[in-house]
Fold each of these.
Amino acid sequence: MGTFNSQDWFPDIKKLARFVFELSDKRFVSYNERVIDRILESYPIRLNSLKKCIYTGEDLATRRIDHHKVTALYIQLCLENKVFKLPPTITTRVGASVSTKLINEMFCVRLAKDVLEAWNDNRFDTKKFKKEYMSSFLRLLWHYKDRAAWCKRHETSTYALAHAIYFIERNFMM
């Protein structure tokens, strides 16, 4: 696997996943660190595919993509690979909270928050985000997870998610 600029983020993503798992309801949630390793292996392939779409006919090794698209790729890969596994049928009736049922999406929200804070060197306004946009963004992420196979084949889904991340950055960074 060749190196790429954001490769150094993956140990932090793994730490974040362990942290989220430690806080999770382990009656329903399982986690295997190898999922992050698979995402790390897949990332350069997807990154290259996205660069080919953006920079047609140019030397891709010298071209970079913006942090919104990088974050969108992280999120897509995390949703496609389901960082956290849940039973096939899980209901609130058996004691699972909404946060448990949406653990992969919640993980991606936290991942986006952490990346945006690191890239901007500013704080994310979590309170404002939760009040104004969290439910909409969680729905969007749920749809990405639900349609992961389609999103994987169409770079336009990465662009759309990158625009949502730009919107979040513009409206919720302090």
Amino acid sequence: MKLKFNLSFNSISIEDLVFLLYFLNLVCILVLSVVLGRDISELMFYVLLVGLIILCLFKCSINQLLPPFLLYAGVVVLFSATYLIHPEYKNWFLHDTYGIVPAFLTPVTGIWAFLIIWLSNDNEKIVRNLKLVCFILWIFYLLRYISSVRRGYWIINDVNGEEVHSAYNLEYGYDMLFPTAFFGSYAFINGKKRYYLPFLIGIYAILMGGSRGAILWPIAMFPLMLPFQWHKMASRRRQYILVLFLLLLAVGILFVFYYQAVVSLGVKLLTSLGINSRTISSLLTGSFSNSNGRETIYKTVWGMIKNGGPFGWGVYGDRPVIGRKFRWGYSHNLFLEILVSFGYLGGSVILILLTKGIIDLYRNCTDSFQQVIFITFFVTSFKLVFSNSFWYTGAFWVLLALMLKWRKKKSMQPVLAETAQAVV
């Protein structure tokens, strides 16, 4: 089977270049570092990226810039208000890794993804750019995995920035999840079977080199995509899918009732072939679902939610408490972090609005470009179920931008219709 990727560009706009530089920042800085050194490469890259973003902003109207301005102004107000009420959070706001400067003001961090997507108005071009980005990242992360296998261990930076040797890389699985989710969604939605190859290789790399949670989401994405293609399928293919679903359901029931026997047989078969990883080892020992400290974190956060009042502990409210036992300090769960930060009342309102926004966005993905974009970033954001913080996760801010862009487009439709009738 010939694997062919159409990555040619007829023209690259400033917005395209900003998109590519933002999502490929790690690769770009690494390449520059070989020649110039790490510090100067980062500085040059940040100056270039910010300069191009400013050029894009000059091309936009005030009306177009209003939503991102209000969003970022709202974030500033939240942090400022929290600091006035809780000055004891100062150390976390100034943290070398998770503080305001490294996690928010640096132009390659998660929250900047909102602006990057907001400036990209053509869904077809976003998919085209994603194809190039994910192809390069897929190669980059695959080479990282191969290097770790040859070396016999991963070299990772801990929360203090110090290099340590590890048998696995917790972040690697979620890093590889981004290009893997794109290739899987692009293959399924567009019927491009050749893209299943990098998808499957990506799953293998996640299984062997990443965390346990990341391996769940490339599989879970297919039931999400099925409604996009259901009406296009022939009746026979629908019957095959229903039969497959029933078989998987039966296997799932057997798996639940005979977990140890099924897992031991499968894992021993893999290990006999020389295939081994932390994920496989955790399956063999029955520890796949172990919380790895999360149970302690969740219990602590629940206690804070109960005692935090209707509007919670404010931004970074979980950090001072969780940070006493775990250096990263965040809740490791999107829902808990929002509830502990904004309270059981304020947080519940935010979660309801987010859920409604995601459902509306999902239901209104009317073409293949919108569908690929949505699935790619939605699946990538699933890491927030078990890991990380929404403040640092670019996929979360991309989804927020997509929700607001769709809402703005919907609100403009009556105006456009009236204008068209007036012209006629």
Amino acid sequence: MKEFFGFGGYQRIPEGYFSWQHLTFVSSLMVIMVLCAVLFGLKNKNKDEKAKTRVLIVSAILIDSAEIFKLIIVCVRSQDPLAWLYDLPLFLCSIQLIAIPLAAFTKGRIKNAALDFVFVFGLLGAVMGTYFAGQNYGCYPVLSFDNVVSGYTHSISGFASLYIAFSRMASMKKRNIWVTFTILFGFCGAALIANKLLDYNYMFLRGGDGTPYDIVYRFVNGNQILYPACVIGLFLVYIVAFYFVFYLCTKKKKQP
């Protein structure tokens, strides 16, 4: 248990980024994630909003409780009560720690906007935070506390996104795209400030850190103005592309 939680540092040599152990572990999580989303989504598709929301309430409790437990372990392990400052929900995927509870516990336009945000970014965060998390799987053993909790929380984000799709909870109203932009810009601004104050790399706005963002970082030669601008620009392009594809796929044929 001491080794699993990393007290005193991990003694095992990490299996490595894209090792068969890494791919097997995250693929198992993805299979479970998709199966649960399809099962619960189709089961609740024709039920009322209250019944559909119960699944999101459970998801919100599970993801946030796991994150709080992780912060406690991180602080105890490092013997630093301020270690949580380096685990703030200021990565693209960790925004779901706030967005899923908003989708579960609020009403009206805020709820609809939160549902759309989780729908748009939840699955992307799940894939990026498991298969392409080189900063984790290149540093820690696959079956370690850091990677297990990370895989667990990212899988819940992906589950929530797919569940919203299969249960038909996403409104994807055009007016809500601006709310999605606002949420994203707000977190990017907070990440930039935190990076400056803490000398950290929230939202990967200072470097790729072993993720696919390294491609952008190398493309702009590490320029600290162009690089974050390109990363944020990619977020915006993704939102527009997602909405565009969604409307193409759901557009009803005009009656003759």
Amino acid sequence: MRIIYWNSSCLEPEIEAISKEVFQLARHFPGSWLFGINPHYRFRWSFRERYVGFHPSFDPILRVLIPLVERFADINHVYGEPCPWIFYKTVKRRPLVLTIASEKGEGNCEFFDRCRKIIVQTEHSRKKVLAFGVEKKKVELVYPGLNLSRFEPILRPQGIQGTPKVLFATAPRTREEMEGRGVNLILKAAKESSDIHFHLLYRPWRTGYTSLQPTKDFIATHNLRNVTLTNTVVHDMPLMYREFHFLTVPYTRPDGGKECPNSLIEGLACGIPVLISAVSPFAYFIEQYQCGVVFEPTSSGLIQAVEKGMRQYTELSRNGITAARPQFSEANVLQRLEGIYKEVA
């Protein structure tokens, strides 16, 4: 079964969540290819990794090329935005599956009608799709999958010893994203409470990277000794999670970042409680499984969430492990996708 994953990712699986997810799927299903369109590269391809990527400026050529490429697929799987503009216009000749994994863009009734299955990654996204009049049986909730043999539980029976350490790993690419992603909120909280240590894990984007310097400037200007900023690719995230007590997703807007951040599910699988703002689309999961603390998107709200998390740490950690193991199992996710592909083929 040959699948083409049409996506708008940056095709950098080592630092971007959507790229990581589509590469994972293409490697599992033999003969599959990734076809990307993204403004952060001109042209990119790899025969060994089976991907090709174009800049949006190739639009006239792509409108001719995409229908030709599509003929080699058994199934089209559009992955990313609710209605990627060029794929909506051109991908029409094979059974179509859509995964909504990005907060950007609006849905489209015509495009949703053409999809045989629509996969979402949060209940929030499911409700938005159903509001377009899509049949319930057409919409599937499937979380990203993890290799659970890598992300093993970290048990701390004694709870937190010493200074609480909070990891932020959903870093913004641009200066404009810093507010919605919650960076400014974290920095303000660090300024107000020196008793909490925050670690900002940034990623060395190849192009369009404008968030790093203003973050550095704020830390230096306010002499925030309780904030660490790193700008690197971490190849062993399970090892990194062992250094922290909490993971935070402090969005100040519902579209502040990816609805289901990969770092969040990885942290839960390791038993790291999540401190998540009430406006974040994944907050319902944290409340439902009691595997973290939901807080109002303010600096004081985050500080109070850390304090509450410290008091309930052992329970929250165990709940996270219990919830994550079946929900985010890579084997379970791939099995479900195989079933979806067989259904729509």
